[in-house]
Amino acid sequence: MSTKQKNITPTQIIILGFLIPIAIGTLLLMLPAANQRPISFMDAAFTSVTATTTTGLTTVTLSEQFSLFGQIIILLLMQIGGLGFMVYVSIILMALGKKISLKERILINQSLNQKSLKGMVKLTQKVFVHTLIFELVGALLMSIEFIPAYGFGKGIFYSLFHAVSAFCNAGLNIMPADMGRIQFMNITFISFAIFALSLIGATGFFVWDDIETCFAEGRKKHYSLSKIISKFSVQTKIVLTFQIIFMIFGTLFFFGLEYDNTLARLPVGTKISGSFLHAMQASTSGMTTIDMHQLRAPTKLLVMIMMAIGGAPGSTAGGIKTVTVFVIFASVFYSLIGKKHVRIYGREIPKDTVERSFVILTVTLVTILISAGIMLSVEPHSPTIDLMFDCVSAWGTVGLSTGIPVVATVLTQWILMLLMFIGRVGTITMAVLFVVDKPKNEDPIRYSEENVMIG
Questions:
Q1: CA–CA separation, 364 vs 355, rounded Å?
Q2: Which residues contact 394 (CB under 8 A, 6 or more apart)?
Q3: Interior CA angle at 209 toward 234 and 196, to 5°?
Q4: DSSP state of 347
Q5: Residue 125 burial by CB count (10 A; 0-12/13-18/19+): exposed, middle or buried?
Q6: Fewer beta carbons within 10 Å, N or C terminal of the chain?
Q7: What is the dihedral of CA 203, 206, 211, 212, to 10 degrees?
Q8: From residue 438, how far is each of 90, 109, 281, 441 by CA, in Å?
Q9: 191-203 b/e with 16+ CB inside 10 Å = b?
Q10: Whole-angstrom distance, CA of residue 138 vs CA of residue 87
């Protein structure tokens, strides 16, 4: 093995784990058998990227463009992209009776965004098995409505496709044009399954494992529910707290802002359910329920904030991540009251974690602003807020769109694809793409301090 090959870092391998499926997916989606009508390279590439990065932005209507074979390819790309290439490589190696090496454990660790190498193989098995169970149960619920509406074969495939899309927070749907909006707006088996799967996928693998472990221990020791909840890790408590905040305030704000606009002609019950489902989808899977272009400017801003925050670390959702934002708010709060240390739920957060949170926020803002600036210069006739909306949606891998990708220039489509890719693999991961992982050491040379004015 050459020195160059030995120096390939886990980060670089993870990125290749996304690039390879994207490249293969593009080639397969260009095959005549995958399409009902001719497709361009850009449309095939954009679809492959949006499926593998589990985003949901599209330049074509999937139900009209792709054949069953093409839709199966998209389903597989979503599944691979949702959990990460290394999870499936590890499952195959375990099925073949191969031992998982230390390097592979490190790759799984980074792929799932975990804190330690302990129990990586067991966690991988749990992730894979639980994913299959959640998706199959969700598909079963959807089939109750899809089979009577579309027949057994098509109903089963529709159920599987949308279950995978929802759990992986991909936001893609293959239903006939505009039928998805009708199905997803009302409280039905389909909308309930999509909501539940999106929420579970956005919660994160670490949180599943922590909740399961705490409840198992609680049953053995006969703990009360409050005692079990108190045993949750700080990570789990933050994630659950943020999800509750999103559900309540997102629903209220969306309902209030759009009551007499996009929700105007709907019954009050449907307005409430539509607001609730859309508030959740804004930070998770991005399943379209209404025309984003028709939203009021304040609503678009609200949705952009929710898309930017996204789901939990180690989840199938994108964004800055809920824990990152929580740590930043806590840090600002403690700084304002004159405290040096950040405390959350009775635990002190390490300084490195706080600093990393601010780095993620800064790099994210710079990435989005530069991308949006370029897009504004090449799309002068498109509304600024719509370009910003789709820019944030691409980076947050949400998939809600005002329609920009369909009418955009080739350069804008490439920028959106790059944003989707960066958003999926992680902003920090991309920043250290060509950096060999080494332990951090103190600089041998230090300089004298000098204060500067800020604020």
A1: 14
A2: 55, 57, 416, 417, 419, 420, 423
A3: 95
A4: E
A5: middle
A6: C
A7: 120
A8: 25, 17, 39, 9
A9: bebbbbbbbbbbb
A10: 21
* Per-residue model confidence as pLDDT tens digits over 184-207: 555 577 878 888 888 888 888 888
Long-range contacts of 413-416 (CB under 8 A, 24+ apart): 413/42, 413/46, 413/59, 415/371, 415/374, 415/375, 415/391, 416/46, 416/57, 416/390, 416/391
Q: Confirm if 158 and 142 have CB atoms less than 8 A apart.
A: yes
> What Å distances lie between residue 83 and 4, 373, 435, CA to CA?
28, 32, 24
> From CA 391, how far away is CA 423, in angstroms rounded?
11
pTM of the model: 0.84
Look at the alpha carbons of 187, 309, 311, 423 in this order and tell me if their dihedral is positive or negative.
positive
Burial class (CB in 10 A: 0-12, 13-18, 19+), 293: middle
The long-range contacts involving 343-348, CB below 8 angstroms and separated by at least 24 positions, are 344/234, 344/238, 345/234, 345/237, 345/238, 347/234
CA-nearest of 355, 347, 357 to 324 is 357
Closest C-alpha to 312, from 198, 418, 174, 207 = 207
Residues 129-169: tens digit of each pLDDT: 888 899 999 999 999 989 988 899 999 999 999 999 988 88
Residue 343: strand, helix, or coil = strand
- 229-250, pLDDT tens digit by residue? 888 989 899 999 988 888 888 8
Q: Report yes or no: 212 and 134 within 8 Å, Cβ to Cβ.
A: no
Q: What is the DSSP letter of 285?
A: T
For the chain, how many residues are written? 455
**Residue located via tokens 């759009």:** 258
